[in-house]
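ok here's Enoyl-[acyl-carrier-protein] reductase [NADH]:
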Amino acid sequence: MSTLNGKVAVVTGASKGIGASIAEHFAASGAKVVVNYSSSKEGADRVVANIKAKGGDAIAIQANVAKQAEIEKLFAETKKAYGKLDILVNNAGIYEFSPLEEITAEHFHKQFDLNVLGLLLTTKEAVKLIGPEGGSIINISSIVGPMPMQTAAVYSATKAAVDAITVALSKELGARKIRVNSLNPGMVETEGVHAAGFAESDFRKQIEATTPLGRIAQPGDIATAAVFFASDDAGWVTGQTLILAGGQRQ
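and the structure:
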């Protein structure tokens, strides 16, 4: 497929997991892709190598998108490499679970500074590179935004904020032909899920038992939806939140 031919995309937090899959699917659809990473150069280089091995065009750019100066560097280097921007995927994010009695200011700010403020500042810089023909911004949110979880009050709040930002910016940027949508995955089998011990947990089994499609997601399940939102096929779609959870409901 070549639905993204001629387009340039920045995918934040793309060294692994959902971000890596989105970057690879974008490249397979014809886009030139900036694989952003914060600390895992090895992972980002691997994603770029995978893309190039299949004939795609990608570069890796380091930037912690919780920091204004590094965000500015990310888009300056994107402009230097490709001259423009058509698509931004705000995928970089973190999650930490904590019961109420253990919530601290540090726990709060660590998640809000990246998941919410970082997303806003990244978007602010990105739109400066998007031309008059418009573009697409895709925010990777979570099912816990509309369906908050216990011991995840702060994380759930960050994702609810992302969904609110999505709607607000879709209205603000619509006149510039910039579409803004969010994807809300449920549990996805990523490196992070394995590292957190969820991959083989009773929690996963509980989710699968209450999911009509009977499994958790793979990164590609999210990436294919991102390709649609990035493409001109979604040219009349903005301000929307799509739950990608196999039919799971609380």
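+1. The longest helix spans residues 105-126.
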